[in-house]
Amino acid sequence: MPPKYIREPARETPLLFDTDVLIAGGGPAGILAAISASKNGVRTALIEENSFLGGMAAIGLGMPINNTAPGGIEHGGLTSDFVRLLCQPGPDEALVNETRIWGKHIWHDPELLKTKALQFLMECGVKVILNARVVGGIVEGNIARGIILEAKGGRKAILSKVLIDCTGDADASAYLGVEFEMSSKKKLQSANINFVLADVDRQKSDCFFGADYEGGAAWEMDILSSHDFVFKQTEWENLIRKARSCGMLADVPEGVRIWWYGHALRPRTVIFNAVRVGGYNWLDTEDLTTALFLVRKQMHNIVDFLRRFVPGFENSYIQQSSPRLGVRETRRIIGEYVLNYKDVTNFRKFPDGVVRCDNPFDNVFPGGERIPLRTLPVGEWFHIPYCSLVPKNTEGLLVAGRCISTTHEVQTAIRGMGTCMAMGEVTGLAASLAIKMEISPRMVPVEHLMDQLKKQGMTPNG
Question: How far is CA 184 from CA 128, 361, 364, 366, in A?
Fold first, then answer.
């Protein structure tokens, strides 16, 4: 029987550089963490495994950035500044829209975002390293000292005074030995890819669905399955049955939701968030490969169905699909406080509440799990406390994004892109304060942090 492990020879890892604040991950949380830290006068670097910045704001192919104004009030600060950057006039100007479910959200051009984000970071003096993946942590006792990365140039080390984990999967935290929770793969939220169909006759498709796509209104249709805010049409269901009876949609399970957005910025295109798989471990390479194959088969099934049966899609074609799987949930770190279901349903406000959130719970579980309370009352919100961004028992480390300290249910509500941006801004500021005060981020006085957030323009209390 072949051995289960091989022994690698010992090696010396070259030091790439050292910095004050190092951000792992260049998605919405990481971008704002880097901007916030740098603008507060500390040396800042960011590494990202993709060849572009933006995370889901880029991988989602223009899916709107939601939760930018919880309770009707913008997050403010650098987060709102960055959103406004995406809304500057021009041929690719973003469009601001508002719905009952998702609140104020931003339709944007993902290609423009990639460039603007990189340009903004460089203008702020942030050292950006793309195509670099975290593969190890540097820790002394219980103090995070940096990370090990792998890139085209080989294996390198970066040292930091404060590390901010914005990887989504809590990769850096895990390599540093931080305690975390992760649901079984039967309970992990489903993952998907998005795709864009071009050359859609939107007049015909809008007429068929009775939809008004002006301003980027989102419609959710269901394949033979009920849902609490799905717009159902008998004609649509009949088309699905007809397609299935002749062997179409064979790779699309019944009950898979189809979301599509008439792209507010591109009059003949439609963004689909329509293929979804669950029951896999999103940290397992073989599971990821299997899932990607399945969702791409689903994508072509759905496109063939639309071309044949749905008015307006006869000549449509796949213009673009996500370059990687959109994962919603993996590791959740154990922080000083684990944000829980009652905190959300009671709209709890914390003394160290640094980010407001009014996102609804998202029922995207493969086993039919349902979470009560889809939406919060108009104008209401709950706090994400600073202590949920601080890992237990590890110094020199903060976490922002979907891998913060929450329960499985609450994670579905706090992972919206606007929320992640605000969390990133908080951690960047907190890291800079810790460095200037020569203390661990855990020890930053809450009153001082809240005061500085307000001076930066943020609105943690509305």
Answer: 35, 19, 15, 11
Q: Which CATH number fits domain 15-184+329-367+383-455: 3.30.980.10, 3.30.420.40, 3.50.50.60, 3.30.70.3180?
A: 3.50.50.60
Q: Are 141 and 148 in contact, with CB atoms under 8 Å apart?
A: no
Per the listing, tokens 């009952």 go with: 100
Q: What are 103's two structure tokens? A: 């609140």
Partnered with residue 19 across adjacent β-strands are 160
Q: Where are the domains of the chain?
A: 15-184+329-367+383-455, 191-321
Question: Whole-angstrom Cα distance, residue 431 to residue 444?
Answer: 9
pLDDT digits (tens, 9 = 90+) for 113-157: 999 999 999 999 999 999 999 999 999 999 999 999 999 999 999
- Tell me the pLDDT tens digit for each residue of 233-242: 567 777 888 8
